[in-house]
Amino acid sequence: MNPIRPTRILGLDPGLRRTGWGVVDCAGARLIHVAHGVIAPPQEIAFAERLLFLFEAVSAVIAEHAPDEAAVEETFVNNNASSTLKLGHARAASLIAPARAGLPVAEYAATVVKKAVVGTGGADKSQVGFMIARLLPAAGKTTADAADALAVAIAHAHARTARNFRGAA
Amino acid sequence: MNPIRPTRILGLDPGLRRTGWGVVDCAGARLIHVAHGVIAPPQEIAFAERLLFLFEAVSAVIAEHAPDEAAVEETFVNNNASSTLKLGHARAASLIAPARAGLPVAEYAATVVKKAVVGTGGADKSQVGFMIARLLPAAGKTTADAADALAVAIAHAHARTARNFRGAA
Fold first, then answer.
1. Which chain A residues have a beta carbon less than 8 Å from that of B84?
2. Which of residues 74-93 of B touch A (CB under 8 A)?
3. Which of these, A146, A144, A58, A136, lies nearest to A103 by C-alpha position?
4. Quick check: ipTM above 0.95?
5. Hey, are the CB atoms on A99 and B72 less than 8 Å from each other?
6. Which residues of A touch B99 (CB under 8 A)?
7. Which of B150, B57, B61, B55 is CA-nearest to residue B97?
8. Active centre residues of B (catalytic)
9. H or E element at residue B107
10. How confident is the prediction along chain B (169 residues), in pLDDT tens digits per residue?
């Protein structure tokens, strides 16, 4: 395999109350933690303003860390139609911001993300957090939302490395 | 009542396949049609790109017509969770774009919009189209999506005039 310029991946775990984000450099099979965080819009502002807050905060993360690609978790679809609708709104902010910055945006189901990081699609949050600490020791302490976002970035790193191998075969 | 500088209102009827928009000037009880149209993103592009298309097209309408305020229909919540989630995404594009342009963004339930235009919350699409042709004769022929968007703008015009009357009392 040829040496590969590291690809910087932005992972996003979207939510209206909290959107987790994580940036990881991926050079072949090597993963390097860059940064992570959680975006929490003030809850007392109007709905459109909360979405704008998410959109602008994701755009600011992109401006600061200049990722090459983005990956967004396919959020759990709730039985409650009203909360599903809200989730869709929040997720759009995490999709439009990187698309607007010209990044390719991949989407991964939560089960695919868990499988990539823990080895099983049925893993719980504590297992994801444990594996993020092992795979990205430089990340230090992460909240569940940031750990999930880093896990999405790792799932994308794996998927694109697998594609590169297939492409080279 | 003092003479009022016309307020320009952008009405939006969001949808992933078609987002209707309509711009109306409102001076007291007088309504003047400015423009309307339908945004239909290409369906073969990636989901994030379709959302970006909606976002940028709504932003372009705002740049061209310079509305003072925006009003967005509260889209029907479907029983199908997956289409409800998609609807949420599309709606976010119609909320973030005007919020980003600094416009106040109001939201109105479909029943409130129909009641404002037709007089009953249970009106069907043809009744809305008929009343739009009566209230805004300059609009000419409108598709259902554009008529709905103009109806949202009218509903907002009525609501804000009612607020001004209350404010003046």
1. 81, 84-85, 88
2. 75, 77-79, 81-82, 84-93
3. A58
4. no
5. no
6. 48-49, 51-52
7. B55
8. 13, 73, 145
9. strand B105-109
10. 455 689 999 999 999 999 999 999 999 889 999 999 999 999 999 999 999 999 999 999 999 999 999 999 997 666 788 888 899 999 999 999 999 999 999 999 999 999 999 998 888 888 999 999 999 999 998 999 999 999 999 999 999 877 765 544 3
